[in-house]
């Protein structure tokens, strides 16, 4: 309540004090929020080491968001040396709890061989899980895999389906690719009107290739 000023004047110092008390008693959510406060320097000096310490305390209690944050920290080396293997470890813990961003990041790391050998099957598996939870980038990647990958059975109907789901969430690259597929009749009957419609949606978001195609 003190952190948001909910029913009381906002008071960062008191908010920190109560989070600290709860965190010291082992409250995982409080430990996570302390980590966030230290990571952002919200009302206190920024301290990456303490942020990681509190995230780890929460994460070891199964706090999915803290586990995801640790994955990000180790992916990008924020206050620690980059460590893709540790990033994978923490993403995995969060992902099996249904954390959408962790599922997507795992798919990305298996796709790029970051910290693990490249594995198309696992890439596909984790993108599917994230896409089922409405993750637009995962939906886009699934669509492209169904259209272009040589490692899974090609399925243009499913490619269209997933690209449409991403496009409906304003994913510009998905909108552009739908435009291409309607223009070329790939998986759908050729339809210049729909192609232009999707190119226009992407172009309106600043997608350079869509803007170029519309000017051809």
What would you say this structure looks like, in words?
- This protein has a domain at 134-216: Alpha Horseshoe (Serine Threonine Protein Phosphatase 5, Tetratricopeptide repeat), CATH 1.25.40.10.
- Helix content is 69%, strand content 0%.
- It has 216 residues and is an all-alpha fold.
- The protein has helices spanning 12-24, 28-40, 48-59, 64-76, 84-95, 100-112, 120-132, 136-148, 156-168, 172-184, 192-204, 208-214.
- α7 crosses α8 (136-148) and α10 packs antiparallel against α11.
Q: How much helix, percentage-wise, in residues?
A: 55-70%
Tell me the quaternary state: single chain
The span between the termini is 56 Å
Poorly predicted sequence stretches spanning 5 or more consecutive residues: none
How large is the count of helical segments? Answer: 12
CATH architecture of the domain at 134-216: Alpha Horseshoe
Mean pLDDT: 94
Largest β-sheet summary: none
Q: What is the name of the CATH class of the domain at 134-216? A: Mainly Alpha
CATH fold call of the domain at 134-216: Serine Threonine Protein Phosphatase 5, Tetratricopeptide repeat
Helix-strand category: mainly alpha
Overall, the morphology is: elongated
CATH level 4 superfamily of the domain at 134-216: Tetratricopeptide repeat domain
What's the Cα radius of gyration? 22 Å
Please state roughly what percent of the residues sit in beta strands, choosing from under 5%, 5-15%, 15-25%, 25-35%, 35-45% or over 45%.
under 5%
* Sequence of secondary-structure elements: HHHHHHHHHHHH
Q: Give the beta-strand count.
A: 0
């Amino acid at each position: 309540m003190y952190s948001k000023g909910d029913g009381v004047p906002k008071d960062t110092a008191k908010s920190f004090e109560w989070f600290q008390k709860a965190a010291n008693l082992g409250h995982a959510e409080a430990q996570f929020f302390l980590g966030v406060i230290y990571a952002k320097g919200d009302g206190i000096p920024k301290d990456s080491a303490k942020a990681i310490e509190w995230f780890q305390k929460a994460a070891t209690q199964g706090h999915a968001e803290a586990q995801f944050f640790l994955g990000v920290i180790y992916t990008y080396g924020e206050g620690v040396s980059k460590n893709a293997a540790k990033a994978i470890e923490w993403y995995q813990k969060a992902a099996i709890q249904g954390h959408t961003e962790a599922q997507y990041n795992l798919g990305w790391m298996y796709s790029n061989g970051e910290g693990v050998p490249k594995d198309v099957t696992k890439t596909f598996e984790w993108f599917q899980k994230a896409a089922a939870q409405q993750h637009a980038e995962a939906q886009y990647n699934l669509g492209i895999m169904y259209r272009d990958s040589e490692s899974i059975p090609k399925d243009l109907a499913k490619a269209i389906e997933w690209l449409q789901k991403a496009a409906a969430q304003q994913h510009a690259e998905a909108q552009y690719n739908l435009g291409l597929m309607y223009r070329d009749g790939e998986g759908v009957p050729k339809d210049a009107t729909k192609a232009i419609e999707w190119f226009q949606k992407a172009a309106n978001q600043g997608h350079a290739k869509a803007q170029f195609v519309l000017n051809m």
